[in-house]
Amino acid sequence: MNLVVKGYKKINGIKMYYEIYGSGKPLVLIHGGAGSIRFDFKEIIPRLENQFQLIGIDLQNHGMTEHRNIPETFEQDAKDVAALLKEINIGKASFWGFSNGGNTVMQIAHLFS
Q1: From the CB of residue 64, how many other CB atoms can be counted at a distance below 10 Å?
Q2: Conformational region of residue 14, where left means phi above 0, alpha means psi within -120 to 50, and beta covers everything else
Q3: Are the beta carbons of 28 and 44 closer than 8 angstroms?
Q4: Which pLDDT score, from 0 to 100, does residue 10 have?
Q5: Which residues does the chain have with pLDDT short of 50?
Q6: What is the CATH number of the domain that holds 21?
Q7: pTM for this one?
């Protein structure tokens, strides 16, 4: 895997962890419940990093992102993802989420409809 960028951004009161691989059209990877970017997409990243700019995000209370004392909801996760993408200057992207990540992606679509 050719990691281009990794880091944290302060988003809605927590430090959110993200990684960026490759170049091309942005494809945001949203993990499932109890997962993380490195765990859930470790087989996918090497296969797609030559075709897309992959942006993996650990959601609140997952992976390397901080914990927060509010209920986890798909709507909050969607707001966090949208704010993080704005912070790293991604204005338009495709999304790949599965399980809980799929629900988060549907909430992102709802936010922007």
Answers
A1: 15
A2: beta
A3: no
A4: 98
A5: none
A6: 3.40.50.1820
A7: 0.95
